[in-house]
Structures are given as structure tokens and as C-alpha cells.
Design brief:
Radius of gyration of chain A: 17 Å
Low-confidence stretches of chain A: none
Number of helices of chain A: 9
Oligomer: homodimer
Number of domains of chain A: 2
Strand content of chain A: 5-15%
CATH architecture of the largest domain in chain A: Up-down Bundle
CATH topology of the largest domain in chain A: Glutathione S-transferase Yfyf (Class Pi), Chain A, domain 2
Largest sheet of chain A: 4 strands, mixed
Chain lengths: 216, 216
């Protein structure tokens, strides 16, 4: 499949990392096209024409341009159903999607690069206040996530049962970021056990930031 | 169907509004349970036990507890497929989901009540700076959304073709909020034309905040 799919992404972007994990879990090869966010490569006219939001990742398949990590992963799930990243039953699917959205809508948007830049450059927040903001949303969000995992027998070795799903794919990049910013994690043992189970899995390891060509 | 479904929600919450629209489009009756966010009713122990994130909406169906508006709507789509809120083709579904996520992940999370409260109470932002923050993300996000709508022949009377989808369901509540906060909208004519088409539709009208029992 190499060459058929092209992923514009950035090694440290959570949303990019999600799509890389999904591609690895599905066993789909892809061309890696780095977009260096710190160098503002996402604002280059060619990329802006592709992705008006100037966000990564963007997946190209033939003439089709796909954006938004969770929409891309749902697309991959529909077009390459094996192995499944969503449970077979509607309630299970709803649980997995809602766990993924608990991170993708409630934690990550508050802490991505453009938001942190706005806090510092436009609102003149100190570095300390910016980091307090960051940790607040990660810790509050993951505390709620931990309650959901511990309070439901559907939780297994992974967030939902014993195989990786969209929920794990969304969780792992958030934990990487939480570690980088020294967020408290030792009070979330179930979440961290799931994270460790994921990181023992080759697909997650192959997708991690340090394994990316632009990580150097 | 009244009585079978119970929706914990708040009239002014965007995410609640999305689910109300979907229920109306599907023709599903439901019991409306108000959770007054300004009075912090979401922190009451009974609600916190149901929804650890303390967010609305929560949909109850029998013994099942469903959270996260987009996951709830995907569930309704799977369990009550008519009328469809997603296109039949995988690429169309990816486009609709990505438009919805452009709002649900890039605009709304930055502007919900708990975030605005944190900016004012914890980071001591002025009312002016808070409103500037609000308008910045709405205007930047909707400008990118407008480019996507105008740049794609798949856009019709609604965001995707001529029937309402998940993208319209997510757009409309965001426009209601944008209007409340005096965000600039006159430079987004295609987006606003879609908004007007939605508001000419009974299901959207029946779901709007002013039609809710807790709006008084």
C-alpha cells in the first residue's frame, strides 16, 4: 500500500499521532510528509489550499483530501474494517467514541500549539500561568476519564475490552503530552495501565513521536 | 417513544442543542431533564455519578447512559437510521464528520462555560479579553469552515447536499452562540445561507434554545 496514502503530519501533534496509530493497527503503509508546526509550515499556501484550518493531519488518498483525525480514522475503519477499531455493538461503539471525544473535545483542543501561543502572545499570560492552564485541563479531563474506566466492567486490558480501539488511539497521544508537561498521572492507575498495555503493542510503538522521520 | 429516552441538557448548551436537533430530525420523542449549568446543577452527586465529566448532554435509554453529543448522534444514527444524518458513501461521511469536528473540536471547546470561567476566575482575564478570546476562535474557525463550504461542490443547500447532516447539526448551535457574542458573520455568506436553510426546517426550530422548557 505504500504510496497509495500520504499523511501530512507533525511528529509531536497528538492528532497526527492518532492517525499514525490507526494506520499501523490496520497495517496500511503511507508516505510521511512532515509539516513543521513550530516553523509554521502549515501556513504555506500549498498546505493552506489543502487544509483551510491550517491544522494537521491531512490524509491524501488518490484525489481525496481527508482532515480531522477522528473523521479520518472512522473513514479508515469503514474502508479497511480489519482489525476493527470500534466494537461491533452500537452501545459499545458509543462508549468508545465518547471516551475518544472526552479527550479529543475536552482536553486536547485547550492545549494545542495555536491555543498556547494565543495565551502567551495575545493575552500575555506568563509561562507559569500557561503551564497551569495546560495541566488543569489535562488533570481534570483525565480524572473524569479514570472514573469512567474504573466504573465500567466494559474496561479491559484496553479502554474497551482486550483489543485496541479508537479510545486507546486517542488516549495514548494525550498521555505522551501529559508526560512532557509534567502533569500528575500517578493518581490515574487504570488509565496508566491501559497506556502501558498500548505501549507494549508494536503498532503504538511504531507510531510514536520519537519514531518519526521529523523527530530528529 | 416519549418516555423511552431521557435527555439531561441545558437550553443554551451547544452540545445539548446538537442532540436535540438530531432527536427532532429522527422524530424521536424524549423527556427533557434540565441541568442548569449556571447554577452548577451538573456538580450534584446524582449527575456526577452519571457523567464524571460533569458535562451535558447525557442521554438515557433504558439502563444505558450515553455521553458526548457526537457519539450520541452516531448512536442514534446506527439505531434509528431514518432519515440518515450521514451520507451513504465513505468519503461523504468523512467530509461531514470532519466539518462537524471542525466546530466540535476547534471552536466550541475553547468557548464553553467552564473554560470562560477559568479564564476569568483563575487567570484573572478581563471581560474584554475574555470576549476577544471568544470571538477570535469563533471567527477564525468559521472562516476556515466558510472556505471549506465554498471550495467544494459537495456543498448544497445544507453543508453536504440538500438534506441536513451531522455537519449542519453541529454548525447551527455554534452560530447561535456566535450571534449572542456579536461575532462577525457577514463575511461568511455561504455558512450563513446554510444556517438560514437549517432554521427554515421545523426540526431545528423545535430544538432551539428559546423553545426549551428551561429557557424561561
Amino acid at each position: 500500500m505504500t504510496g497509495a496514502l500520504k499523511l501530512y503530519n507533525y511528529f509531536r501533534s497528538s492528532a497526527s499521532f492518532r492517525v499514525r496509530i490507526a494506520l499501523e493497527l490496520k497495517g496500511l503503509g503511507y508516505d510521511y510528509v512532515p509539516v513543521h508546526l513550530l516553523k509554521n509550515e502549515q501556513t504555506a499556501p500549498a498546505y493552506a489550499a489543502l487544509t483551510p484550518s491550517l491544522l494537521v493531519p491531512t490524509l491524501i488518498e488518490g484525489d481525496s483530501v481527508l482532515t480531522q483525525s477522528l473523521a479520518i480514522i472512522e473513514y479508515l475503519e469503514e474502508t479497511h474494517p480489519e482489525p476493527p477499531l470500534l466494537p461491533a455493538d452500537a452501545l459499545g461503539r458509543a462508549r468508545v467514541r465518547s471516551l475518544a471525544l472526552d479527550i479529543a473535545c475536552e482536553i486536547h483542543p485547550l492545549n494545542n500549539l495555536r491555543v498556547l501561543r494565543y495565551l502567551v502572545h495575545e493575552l500575555k499570560l506568563s509561562e507559569d500561568d500557561k503551564n497551569r492552564w495546560y495541566r488543569h485541563w489535562v488533570e481534570e479531563g483525565l480524572a473524569a476519564f479514570e472514573k469512567r474506566l474504573t466504573g465500567d466492567t466494559a474496561t479491559g486490558r484496553f479502554c474497551h475490552g482486550d483489543t485496541p480501539t479508537l479510545a486507546d488511539i486517542t488516549l495514548v497521544p494525550q498521555i505522551f503530552n501529559a508526560k512532557r508537561l509534567d502533569c500528575r498521572l500517578d493518581d490515574k492507575p487504570r488509565t496508566m495501565a491501559v497506556f502501558e498495555a498500548c505501549m507494549a503493542h508494536d503498532a503504538f510503538k511504531r507510531a510514536e513521536p520519537s519514531a518519526c522521520p521529523d523527530a530528529a
